[in-house]
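Renewal narrative, Specific Aim 1. Our central claim is that a sequence can be written position by position from structural information alone. The example that follows is taken directly from our test logs and has not been curated for this report. It begins with the structure tokens describing the chain, in the order in which they were read.
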């Protein structure tokens, strides 16, 4: 992960395959593991990956950690997650945009798998699972609802 200047001259000097956007609000406990996982997944794409951490009203060491990993950092004070992610997309230079939460770890093969599927031209996007570092009430409830809906559909189907 390299620090890239946001000048128009530099913008076209390198071909960036992946721009990885991480929205972050006080994520010092999780960001390092997330960035380590991105580094591992990026091994096949040396100098073709940029990581953009969108700092959202951080009051902890999140920015310091991102800079230690030489990520591009921008600040955004919106309260809407889509706007926060899109702030990163606005400065992204990659051919492929990937978003990941700071408390999630990317699997080693994720970028190569994304590349493989997108180059077939059969797919234009998608979602994948990762390893989550924490479970919020919202994620827990959503999981229960999905399991419940799946179970109910199976019962109705039978």
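The sequence written for that structure reads:
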């Amino acid at each position: 992960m390299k620090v890239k200047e946001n000048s128009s001259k530099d913008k076209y000097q390198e071909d960036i395959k992946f721009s990885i956007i991480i929205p972050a609000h006080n994520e010092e406990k999780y960001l390092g593991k997330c960035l380590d996982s991105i580094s591992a997944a990026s091994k096949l794409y040396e100098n073709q990956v940029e990581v953009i951490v969108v700092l959202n009203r951080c009051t902890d060491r999140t920015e310091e950690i991102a800079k230690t990993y030489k990520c591009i950092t921008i600040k955004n004070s919106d309260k809407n997650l889509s706007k926060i992610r899109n702030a990163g997309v606005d400065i992204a230079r990659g051919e492929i945009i990937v978003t990941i939460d700071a408390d999630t770890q990317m699997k080693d093969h994720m970028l190569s798998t994304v590349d493989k599927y997108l180059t077939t031209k059969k797919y234009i996007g998608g979602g994948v699972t990762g390893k989550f570092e924490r479970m919020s009430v919202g994620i827990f409830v959503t999981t229960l609802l999905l399991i419940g809906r799946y179970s109910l559909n199976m019962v109705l189907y039978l």
